[in-house]
Amino acid sequence: MKLEVGPAGDYEAPSCFQEDLFAVLGDQRPDHRWLIIGPERSGSTFHKDPNATSAWNAVVRGSKYWIMFPPYIMPPGVFVSDDQSEVTSPLSIGEWLLSFHEEARQTSGCLEGVCEEGEVLHVPSGWWHLVVNLDPAIAITQNFVPRSHVGSVVDFLDRKRAQISGFKDDVTDPLELFLGRLKEEYPGLAVELKRDDADKSRKRKWEEVVAPASVENASSGAFSFGFGDDLESEPED
Ligand SMILES: O=C(O)CCC(=O)C(=O)O
Ligand SMILES: [Fe+2]
Description:
Helices cover 29% and strands 22% of the residues. The chain contains 5 helices and 10 strands. It has helices spanning 93-106, 150-159, 174-185, 187-210, 212-219, and strands spanning 33-38, 43-47, 54-61, 64-69, 79-80, 87-88, 111-115, 120-123, 128-133, 137-144. Bound molecules: 2-oxoglutaric acid and fe (ii) ion. One of its GO terms (molecular function) is cis-regulatory region sequence-specific DNA binding. This is F-box protein. One of its GO terms (cellular component) is nucleus.
């Protein structure tokens, strides 16, 4: 896919990434777009993007190597604290590649590839990624919230408050703000989210009372419920 750059050098998000429910926050939305410029061999160590957002990344100059893992497959050589608030990748990008690249490529779920000038990559909500500039590179990246992942974002704002990032200081309760705005602009969706939430808490109570073993199933992702992206969202605490 190509990034459309206009005559004045401005750009539009590729059409398939234009649905962005954080747009309801207007100028209260968290930071969401960056120009990334780096020399050959620079890049980003393994991370997930903030607030369970998805991202697109368009290479304007140069090329980038990407290696990615789905939300519940830990890349080898990367460790997180129990609440996922601290990501420890004890090695530089180069050392990680020398020590773990081959193992990572054999790990199920691993995806890798190179984006050349003019190409755009999608990083779905919750996916781990490491990126290396193969040449001096310039890229534009933007975080967004498609409808298919709004459940994960609401869940993150609700249950990972200490890890929320990018909002201005005057936004004291991002969850309440987001749900309030969704209710105004997407009333049907807000009702769906609410119903989904009620389902989850009913299920939690049911598990606590009658089926301790199934809690383990839920944590391992053996079955799922809810909003459509649950397989990729956080297990119940
Ligand atoms: O180095 C890059 O282009 C990747 C950047 C990235 O993953 C991010 O900004 O979250
Ligand atoms: Fe990222």
